[in-house]
Specification:
By secondary structure, this protein is mostly helical. The protein is about 60% helix and about 0% strand. It has 11 helices and no strands. α6 (about 90-100) packs antiparallel against α9 and α8 (about 130-155) packs across α10 (about 175-190). The chain starts with 8 loop residues before the first helix and ends in a 5-residue tail after the last helix. This is ANKY2 protein.
């Protein structure tokens, strides 16, 4: 287990990219993320929990089994990986990352990307060392991509319209209702209802009225 206790996010990221294992435990049975949380280095926890090796995504850029075409075109792997590894999960930030890359901001590209995200989500939940956090993140990104597709197809202002909808506050108090409903909808649609993380999210959100 690499030492995250120093609180240096850059070194943590470099070690992850060099192949440091995140699920190995130390002599007291704690992973690197758990040790970082224990000593209050929450930025390092965020980096570890959001890390996704590029080679795991590149797997989908090669035809598998009976497939004649890869599920993800090579040109989309870089832009998608940037979004997968971002630590800012605000929906506006995600849409801006899509919008800034012309390769991504197209219906067909986003369709391929969200299907790959769904496959990664499934893999995270079914693998031996289940990763609910990463699975939920992949599902959340998939939901935002699908909503991007809706706006690209149906609205003249396209992704700008999506961003405006996310930022618009209701008149009486400025609360962003559309954004709140989008996030709640993505949680509700998470396909693995037995997940502990999902149940925690539902318990914390259910009593709160919009």
């Amino acid at each position: 287990v690499f030492p995250p206790n120093s609180g240096n996010k850059e070194i943590t990221w470099m070690m992850l990219e060099a192949g440091a294992e995140t699920d190995v435990v130390n002599s007291v049975g704690r992973t690197a993320a758990q040790m970082a949380a224990f000593v209050g280095q929450h930025d390092c926890v965020t980096v570890i929990n959001n890390f996704f090796p590029r080679e795991r995504l590149d797997y989908y850029t090669k035809p598998q089994g009976l497939d004649k075409e890869p599920k993800l075109p090579v040109k989309l792997a870089g832009p998608l990986h940037k979004i997968i590894t971002t630590t800012n999960m605000h929906p506006v930030k995600i849409v801006l990352l899509v919008k800034e890359n012309p390769l991504l901001a197209e219906v067909e590209a986003l369709q391929k990307c969200y299907r790959v995200l769904d496959l990664i989500c499934e893999k995270c939940m079914k693998q031996k060392d289940m990763n609910e956090v990463l699975a939920m993140k992949m599902h959340y990104l998939s939901c935002i991509f699908q909503k991007c597709i809706t706006f690209l197809k149906e609205r003249e202002d396209k992704l700008d319209g999506f961003i405006k909808s996310l930022l618009k506050g209701r008149e009486k108090d400025g609360f962003p209702v559309y954004q709140e409903k989008l996030i709640r909808e993505s949680i509700r649609k998470f396909p693995y209802c037995e997940a502990t993380l999902l149940q925690q999210l539902v318990r914390s959100i259910a009593p709160v009225e919009i």
